[in-house]
Design a protein that fits this description.
- By secondary structure, the chain is of the alpha/beta class.
- It has a single domain, classed as Aldolase class I (TIM Barrel).
- It is built from 11 helices and 12 strands.
- Strands 1-4-5-6-7-10-11-12 form an 8-stranded parallel barrel, surrounded by 6 helices.
Length: 252
């Protein structure tokens, strides 16, 4: 079995790391470059950087900040936010990103997934999905969770896989920041439906929540923010715990 991955996430607003609950009530969580360096040294498997208001505000991701983070880490680095065209992808890859995460632009222009996969390879294209369970099922949202769409979670991720996405980063908006565990039932269905890796996001509060995402949700990776940023869970301790649970981990 492939090793599971632990991925800290830097949500960036105005150049600072922030974290909220259910996508609102943001509070500052530290300097992104310092956090990135610390996570790389602690044994994180990857790092995700999301400029969370770029799509909503209609501007580009902070290229200089991406460069500074990339220069301070030695792990794979995914960048998302405000990416609308191949030129944005090329600019961020040149700045040091290894993968690109797209959400709003992919929903509006699904052919962008195919363009990225064709020009840079499927391994570069991560489909990020912000979804919420509604009376009509799991619906996908645009612009940092502000706008509901007609896209249904399982149909949309399947389409994205067929178009060439290399991974799916699934965030349950209802679970985000509340620390009661991941949306494991939806995760498991995604993992059973798709042949590409699924990254769990939204809800981590304890080590057991990570365990459940891997064992019950069948996730390939688990992403978290506040429990790492505020020192509630240390990555080496988490990995030791998960190894003791029989979950394969890369230990440095």
């Amino acid at each position: 079995m492939l090793a599971k991955r632990i991925i800290p996430c830097l949500d960036i607003k105005d150049g600072q790391t922030v974290k909220g609950v259910n996508f609102v009530n943001l509070r500052q969580a530290g300097d992104p470059v310092e956090l990135a360096r610390a996570y790389s040294m602690q044994g994180a498997d990857e790092l995700v950087f999301l400029d969370i208001t770029a799509s909503f505000e209609g501007r580009k991701t902070f290229t200089d900040l991406v460069k500074r983070i990339a220069a301070n880490i030695s792990i794979p680095f995914t960048v998302g936010g405000g990416i609308h065209e191949l030129g944005d992808v090329e600019r961020l890859l040149n700045a040091g990103a290894d993968k690109i995460s797209i959400n709003s632009a992919a929903i509006r222009h699904p052919e962008l997934i195919e363009d990225i996969a064709r020009h840079f390879g499927s391994q570069v294209c991560v489909l990020a999905v912000d979804a919420k369970q509604t009376s009509h099922g799991w619906k996908c949202f645009l612009n940092g969770g502000r706008v509901e769409t007609e896209k249904e979670l399982f149909d949309w991720t399947r389409e994205a896989q067929e178009r060439g996405a290399g991974e799916v980063l699934f965030t349950s908006m209802d679970h985000d920041g509340v620390k009661t565990g991941y949306a494991n039932e939806a995760l498991r269905r995604l993992s059973d439906t798709l042949s590409i890796p699924v990254i769990a996001s939204g809800g981590a509060g304890t080590k057991e929540h990570f365990r459940d995402a891997f064992l019950d949700g069948k996730a390939d990776a688990a992403l978290a923010a506040s429990v790492f940023h505020f020192g509630e869970i240390k990555i080496p301790d988490l990995k030791s715990y998960l190894c003791a649970c029989g979950i394969p981990m890369r230990i440095v």
